[in-house]
Amino acid sequence: MQSKFVVDATDVDASFRIRDYLHKILLPIFKEHRSVVFICIGTDRSTGDALGPLVGEKLKYLPRNDVYIYGNLENPVHAKNIEDILVEINTKLPNAYIVAIDACLGALENVGKIFISEKPIYPGMAVNKKLPPVGDLSIVGIVNISGSLEFMVLQNTRLHTVMKLADSISIGISHCILKCIGKKKNIINATIEGIINTN
């Protein structure tokens, strides 16, 4: 399996490609009866940094069979509380497989793309904050271009770009989890309806 997966959020099959890639990684984790924790990093106080909380918000209807979601619009995971959140997870779920989701700045040609890698995220790098690495797997959405004044760039990011990324990531994750745990069709429909209703 490739160590890095890339997809453009505007591709019509983006969420399905994310589903299939994550399924290959997460199915063996569930078979080991390990919990899977999604940490959706960011804050709703900055458009560009709201990707994580938006994904967490859209996953609120996800069935909780060994699946845990940290971070949404009401209770974001950000620089000031992420270390406490990690301590809580390591205490309650010491053998959990952690998937970290965050926004990132990058090259112009990568804006709107989603990168999935089997390595941790280093949150806060765009704003020069030193925080601990997070995750066994990282899902990163490129929301804007990197360069100077990156804090201002995040503040002035288009919400449309962030929402498109959040939709593709959240639907891909939801479909993957439902496929892994074998939920019935009516629960799948209820979950998808919940995601659509948050748009």
From TrEMBL:
Pfam families: DUF1256
Protein name listed in UniProt: Putative sporulation protein YyaC
InterPro entries for this protein: Pept_HybD-like_dom_sf (IPR023430), YyaC (IPR009665)
